[in-house]
Each structure stands twice: as structure tokens, then as C-alpha cells.
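User: Let's play a game. I give you a shape written as C-alpha cells, and you guess the letters that built it. Ready? Here's round one.
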């Protein structure tokens, strides 16, 4: 048997590498990850959230139609087996996230669950994607949800639980960004964006933390159909040093937009004192979950700069929001949800 000295490199043939987009974790890294997971579990348990474990795969009909056309393309399908194998059809799929399985479980065991139901899950999910640098087809997602309550306290509780978990992990320079679906649609109303162009315009505005203002203006005009004046006004106000003050002023003319600001301010007030003011703030160009979030939207970013609403240097690590219904058409109101890859 060949002997290898400590400094020798073992051969690493391609066939011994893990599949593309997946990773092996040796003891030291595995233990670091487990320590992080146990730290998060301890914080969530302290807030009264209960663990839930669901299967790694679900029926295909449970998952499809819940993530939009692009999301459905990334669902890892499992082909029929046995006598049905020749059909080439799929009937199962690896879970895409942890929220849809929760909705199924809540519908199945509703009478056995407390109300509101506060649940957390930390488990792997899969995406049938072609992974780029730093992205994976198998990764662990941390999910925190409250089902069965429409109280604004639910949003605050989720944000506070996440804040304490990040603080316990020692994550440096993170910041929560907050917006509301009502603010977003009030913004379109205030800037007189036609209804049929609104959703596309919001998706483009969400790219302001990745693209230059000029590139966003160009996409709004050539790709979304806005007039140059309308696009320029929106982008200039959203990227100005006093963008928050400008947007608050513009939203005074929109009843829905003002209602959205009230939601944002309520959340900021409820977390005041527990979260330093420089660690949480209103971000008017934050767009997430337009298909299902009905109230507040929030995310936390790593290396966020306190003086900017959504810094280009920040790494978004979590997105969340409140909804009257989840994407999977849950039977109970969905108060708040947070997912951290």
C-alpha cells in the first residue's frame, strides 16, 4: 500500500469530487456549522419557536406553481420509478425551500398545532440550477415563520429573533432593511407609473444595489416602457443622499403609500430599544415577494453601511415579509416569514 507523507498531495481525480454545486464537509468545518446551527436553534427556542422537520422530497404538485415560472424551472424533479419508469415523467421533487413544506404540514396537522404557530426549520434545500461562483445546488436554509396571526407584533418578533441569532453568532456589521408592499405601490402611484408597467418597474428598481443608476434608468426605459423623465425621477430620488426623506415626501400624495409608511414605522417603533437605530432602517427600493407578501418586507445584509439604504457592497443573506396567504395557498393567515440561505 502506498504511503503518503503529510506534505504530499493526494491525487484528486474528477470522479472523486462531489457533484457540481454540492460540497463535502470534513470534521472541522462540519463542527463549526453544527455549532452555528445549535446557536441559532437556542435563540429561536428562547423566543418560543418550535422545530419542524419535513421530508427531503415532496409530491411534485405540492411544489410546482408556488415559485413562479422561473422558480418552477429550478425544482429538482424525481422521475417515476418501477413500472412507470418508461414514461419519463416526474411525480416527486426535492424541496425547493422550507416554506411550502410548512404550509402543507400546517394544513395537514392544523388541529394539533398551537395558534399562532411559531415554527423554525434548519435543513438542506435543492435548486436545479447551473451554479456560479459561491452558489450551490444544495445548501442549508434557515426558516422562521409565524402562522395564524395578523398582529404587527409578529413581524417585530421575527426581526428580533433574527437579530439576536446574528448577534449570538458574532456576525459583524449587519443591518436590517425594511419596506412595505404598500409603499412600493404607493411609489408607483406617486410617480404616475401606469399599473401595467408597475411590477416590472419595481423588479428593475430592486437592482439599484447591483447596477449603476444609469443602467437602471436605461432598463426602465428600454426594457420596462417608462418614459425617460419618469425613470430619471424615480432613480434620482431613490439614489439621492436624502432618498428616504424624498420618498416620504412623495408618498404624502398616496393613501396606500402612507399606509405602507405607517406599517414600516410601526415595525421600527416596536424594535426600538432592542435593535440599535443604525442596525435597522427604511429602504424604499427594497423589493421582495410581490406575488405573496402583503405587508412589511425586510431583509438583513452583511457589511451594510449605516449611511446608505441598500449598499452595493452588502451581501444580502436573508429576506422576509408578512403575508395574508403564503405562495402555497395556506389555509391560515401567514403573519411573518424569514428565510436565510
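Assistant: Ready! My guess for every position:
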Amino acid at each position: 500500500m502506498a504511503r503518503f507523507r503529510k506534505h504530499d498531495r493526494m491525487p484528486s481525480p474528477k470522479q472523486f469530487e462531489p457533484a457540481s454545486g454540492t460540497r463535502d464537509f470534513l470534521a472541522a468545518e462540519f463542527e463549526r456549522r453544527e455549532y452555528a446551527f445549535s446557536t441559532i436553534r437556542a435563540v429561536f427556542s428562547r423566543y418560543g419557536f418550535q422545530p419542524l422537520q419535513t421530508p427531503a422530497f415532496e409530491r411534485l404538485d405540492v411544489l410546482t406553481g408556488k415559485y413562479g415560472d422561473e422558480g418552477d424551472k429550478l425544482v429538482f424533479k424525481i422521475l417515476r420509478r418501477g413500472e412507470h419508469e418508461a414514461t419519463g415523467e416526474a411525480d416527486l421533487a426535492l424541496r425547493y425551500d422550507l416554506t411550502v413544506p410548512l404550509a402543507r404540514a400546517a394544513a395537514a396537522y392544523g388541529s394539533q398545532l398551537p395558534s399562532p404557530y411559531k415554527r423554525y426549520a434548519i435543513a438542506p434545500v435543492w435548486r436545479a440550477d447551473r451554479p456560479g461562483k459561491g452558489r450551490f445546488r444544495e445548501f442549508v436554509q434557515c426558516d422562521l415563520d409565524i402562522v395564524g396571526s395578523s398582529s404587527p407584533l409578529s413581524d417585530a418578533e421575527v426581526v428580533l429573533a433574527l437579530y439576536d441569532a446574528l448577534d449570538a453568532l458574532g456576525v459583524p456589521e449587519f443591518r436590517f432593511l425594511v419596506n412595505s408592499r404598500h409603499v412600493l405601490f404607493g411609489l408607483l402611484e406617486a410617480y404616475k407609473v401606469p399599473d401595467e408597467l408597475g411590477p416590472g418597474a419595481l423588479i428593475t428598481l430592486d437592482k439599484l444595489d447591483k447596477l449603476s443608476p444609469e443602467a437602471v434608468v436605461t432598463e426602465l426605459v428600454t426594457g420596462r416602457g417608462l418614459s425617460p423623465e419618469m425613470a430619471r425621477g424615480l432613480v434620482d430620488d431613490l439614489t439621492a443622499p436624502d432618498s428616504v426623506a424624498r420618498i416620504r415626501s412623495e408618498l404624502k400624495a398616496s393613501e396606500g403609500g402612507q399606509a405602507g409608511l405607517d406599517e414600516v414605522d410601526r415595525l421600527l417603533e416596536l424594535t426600538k430599544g432592542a435593535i440599535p437605530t443604525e442596525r435597522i432602517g427604511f429602504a424604499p427600493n427594497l423589493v421582495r415577494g410581490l406575488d405573496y407578501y402583503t405587508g412589511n418586507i425586510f431583509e438583513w445584509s452583511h457589511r451594510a453601511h449605516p449611511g446608505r439604504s441598500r449598499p452595493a457592497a452588502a451581501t444580502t443573506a436573508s429576506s422576509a415579509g408578512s403575508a395574508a396567504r403564503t405562495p402555497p395557498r395556506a389555509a391560515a393567515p401567514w403573519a411573518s416569514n424569514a428565510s436565510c440561505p
